[in-house]
Amino acid sequence: MNKTIAIIKGDGIGPEIVTEAMGVLDAVAAKFGHTFTYRDAPMGGNAIDAFGVPLPDSSLETCLSSDSVLLGAVGGPKWDSQPSANRPERGLLKLRAAMGLYTNVRPARMFSDLSAACPLRPDIAARGIDFVVVRELIGGVYFGEHSTEEVDGEQKATDIMAYSEHEIRRVAHVAFQMARKRRKRVTSIDKANVLDTSRLWRKTVTEVAREYPDVELLHMYVDNAAMQIVRDPSQFDVIVTENLFGDILSDEASQITGSIGMIPSSSMGEGTRGLYEPIHGSAPDIAGQNKANPIGTILAAAMMLRFSFDMAAEADAIEAAVDAALKAGFRCGDILQTGGTLVGCREMGEAIRSRI
Ligand code: IPM
Ligand code: MG
Q1: CA of 136 to the centre of ligand 1 (A)
Q2: Which residues in 294-304 are b (16+ Cβ under 10 Å) and which e?
Q3: pLDDT for the residue numbered 85
């Protein structure tokens, strides 16, 4: 197969980790007889420096006309003083909306070779951590009206949180379909004791659930969920939640696996084109030093093959190569506490590539 992939290297460690992921994709292409054509799409702080905006139209066009998009990470202190409408993150939010990517999937799974890095008590971790957070990605307070005004001699800021039924329904369907392929349990997370958006969320998810009688549906308040994720993560299979709650809970979920540098994510809408990225940030403090862990991005590339290109065997090959490299003892700095040999970003990429 021939596939074009828009490449957003981004800022900080972004270019290093994406380069390693492209190397792994090339190894897959060679082994399975595919051709991947890469098209550069600048976004983030580097795009602000070069074009004055975080997402130039030409980059958006490249993403919209490619078969899928692979992203490293955007942002950094250099652009912190940009006006809020021109921050690197705005490029990412604009891209998500323009591509219609309403579902963000972030797996929280513990790698058996890395269990020593898990910050939870061993008896809790031993019950298993293997769930996915399905986050609504282009609605809610992220995309409501934002304003700051002068009222009665002081500044007043407002962010509107809004959800329509169709926005809830479509992401709920994704969660139930995913649960069908897993352990058949959906936990919908809201704040229905306080928020109208959450009451509509709960009602709509409950309606969608009727179409999936084989899947169990539980509802949980977000504050309780934050607690349950560290108290007993084994109770979760598929979590579905709105944009802001999902942002917060997915960081918590990744941290309990002990390896935020290893976790990929997919963002999808209708159709097969998606945006794939590691869930960690641009880590400017270690940028350009060959210290970053490329595994999150490499596993994001595997997700792209599986979900956008329907290449299950190829995705399996990448995941097996990552497992094999870990078993062989290769460790980047962020996961070194689990024992093994310290390697840099390039060496980890090579260790994985050579095991494809
Ligand atoms: C994420 C990030 C983004 C978000 C930022 C960079 C805008 O935290 O992908 O989780 O809040 O969605
Ligand atoms: Mg986040």
Answers
A1: 12
A2: bbbbbbbbbbb
A3: 86
